[in-house]
Write a structure and sequence with these properties.
The chain is of the alpha/beta class and 343 residues long. It is built from nine helices and twelve strands. The protein binds pyridoxal-5'-phosphate.
């Protein structure tokens, strides 16, 4: 943000703000190309994958995935593990039969069903899952093995948190606003051989091949969000890449869960094996104190801790941009609050 502020009115001596550039001019092209190259380096994305910088958020992909990946088939497999996979399933049902591979609703989204119970369908066009369920703080501890069936992952709240083997996936997508940059941009990483076989009447804007063939400039992209995402990729590379940020993220999550588990005053219901590194929901033993907790946390400059409206309680989202000192400050505040209000 400081770099963006400093070059906001005059990008590298051009006398133009990035916002004022033509998206097809040489200045902006260099910004866009560098962002893509840096993301490819960060995630070690193989050349046979297209990287798209789209709009419409992850929610648009919920429809674009069946439109582009059914490829003549009539069935798709979905894991149902939380609020976001629920939305993805609802959209897919407009286009095909949806088979639920595993269902976490019966354990209130606190664990992933054991692998031997997973029910894949042999004729599925693809398998979709949500590696990190942002609202419930529920995370897969492994990449599902789907053999030759293309695997699609909604990585909105976990992309860039650690290294990932892109070659295991047919497609990865992520809204930018959690771990990449400002809202308005959605990253799609898709194997090129899957492009070009859409359902009838697919609009051009919903066809991944159209975007791939046009370098994500079929229409005007979200230029400023793309530029800011590029600054974040550059920053991550300077931190030492995803292996380095993964160490910090793991430490942050482990110490926060330890603080919760070591107290009867706080609780996180998720099975330890499936706890999210990024989103840590927690409740107070006495939920009558929730408002007091949020009020005092806000006074201590610990912000946006109110839980999602579906779950209540609290949620600490500790994405890449949250420094470790921020987590330390939250843990110290939680201990003090328990001291003041616990028995
Ligand atoms: C936030 C989020 C979304 C929604 O993204 P939009 O860009 O708002 O459409 C989808 N999936 C997951 C896992 C998310 O965390």
């Amino acid at each position: 943000m400081q770099q963006a502020q400093q070059e906001m009115l005059d990008w590298q001596g051009t006398g133009m703000s990035v916002m004022e550039m033509s998206h097809r001019g040489p200045e902006y092209t260099s910004i866009a190309d560098k962002a893509e190259a840096d993301l490819r380096e960060l995630m070690a994305i193989p050349d046979d994958y297209a990287v798209l910088f789209l709009q419409g958020g992850a929610s648009s992909q919920f429809s674009m995935i069946p439109m582009n990946l059914l490829r003549g088939k009539t069935k798709a497999d979905y894991f149902y593990t939380g609020a976001w996979s629920k939305k993805a399933i609802a959209e897919a049902k407009r286009y095909c039969d949806v088979n639920i591979v595993a269902d976490s609703s019966d354990n209130k989204f606190t664990k992933i069903a054991d692998k031997p119970t997973w029910q894949f369908s042999p004729d599925a066009a693809y398998v979709h899952y949500t590696p990190n369920e942002t609202i419930h703080g529920l995370e897969f501890d492994d990449i599902p093995d789907t053999g030759d069936i293309p695997l699609v992952a909604d990585m909105s709240s976990t992309i860039l948190s650690r290294p990932v083997d892109v070659s295991r996936f047919a497609m990865i997508y992520a809204g930018a606003q959690k771990n990449i940059g400002p809202a308005g941009l959605c990253i799609v990483i898709i194997r090129r051989d899957l492009l070009g076989d859409t359902v009838p009447n697919t609009p051009a804007m919903y066809d991944y091949k159209v975007h791939a063939d046009n370098g994500s400039m079929f229409n005007t992209p979200a230029t400023y969000s793309w530029y800011l995402a590029g600054l974040v990729f550059d920053w991550l590379l300077k931190q030492g890449g995803l292996a380095a940020i993964a160490k910090v993220n793991q430490r942050k999550a482990e110490k926060l869960y330890a603080a919760i588990d070591n107290s009867d005053f706080y609780n996180n219901p998720v099975d330890k094996r499936y706890r999210s590194w990024m989103n840590v929901p927690f409740t107070l033993a006495d939920d009558a104190l929730d408002t007091q907790f949020i009020t005092e946390a806000t006074q201590a400059n610990l912000l946006t801790l109110k839980g999602h409206r579906d779950l209540g309680g609290m949620r600490a989202s500790i994405y890449n941009a949250m420094p470790e000192q921020g987590v330390d400050a939250l843990i110290a505040f939680m201990a003090q609050f328990e001291n003041n209000y616990g028995k």
